[in-house]
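I am going through a labmate's work and have reached the protein record below. What it holds is a sequence and that sequence's fold in C-alpha cell form. Please read both lines and tell me whether the C-alpha cells look consistent with the sequence. Do not assume that whoever made the record got everything right. Thanks in advance; the entry in question is below.
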Amino acid sequence: MSNPFSLDGRVIIVTGAAMGIGEGVARLLAECGATVAVADRDLPKAEAVAAEIGGKAFHVDMADEGSICAMAAAVVEQLGTPWALVNNAGVQDRQLLLDATAEEWDRNNAINARGPFLLTREVARAMIAGGEGGRIVNLASCSLWGQAIKGLTSYMGSKGALWALTKASALELAEHGITVNTVLPGGVGTPGAIAAKGPPAEGPARRLPAMGFCEPKDIAAAVAYFVSPIARYVTNQTICVDAGWSVT
C-alpha cells in the first residue's frame, strides 16, 4: 500500500517559512516528499532554509498585494501548480485595548488576515486552472479558544478573521476539490513570540500546558495531515494543538 501521507511530487507554499512554526512546517512537508516554496519577507533566511530542505525561496511581503501576486505567479512559473498553501506568516505584538491604536489594528489585519485572503485567491485560481484540486491550511491561534493573554485585541481580531476566511473559502472551493482547514497553534517558543513587543503577558495562556510547550514540529504534524492525500474529504475543520492546555 502506498504511503497515504506521501507528498512526493507536490508543490507546497509555506509563508513565513524562514523561521519558527513556518520553518518547522516547511521541514516536515519536505520530509514527506514535497517541494516547498519557502516564502518569507527575509529572503536570505528563506534561502538558507530552502537550501537545506531542497526547496526554493521566494520573497513576499504579506502586507503588499503586488508582492503577494508576484510571488504566487513566480511559484507557478518556476515550480508548477501548487498542491497546497499554508498561510502561516503573521505578527503578534501586543497592545492593551485601552492603549491600542488603529495603526496596530490595521497592521495586524493587513498581514494576518488580508494577506492570506489575497494569497488564497491567487493560489486557488492556479489550483482550479490546474484541475487537480488542492489543500489550503490557515494557521490561526489557540487564543481564539481561550489560551489568551492581555494585549491581543488586534492579533485575535485578525486571527478570528482568518478563521472565518477558512469557512467562507471552504464553501466556495469545495466544488473544485480544494479543501480549506485551520490549525490553532498553542504556546510555541518561536523567535517571533519571544521578540514580541508589548506589556507583560498576563492571562490564561500563562498557565503551563499539561504536556509542556509545543514545538514547531508539533504544529507541523497537524498541517501535514490536512495537506495529505488521505484528508481529501476533510474541509472546514479545525485542529487545536495546545499540549493539553484546554483540559486543565
Notes: The chain has one domain: 11-234.
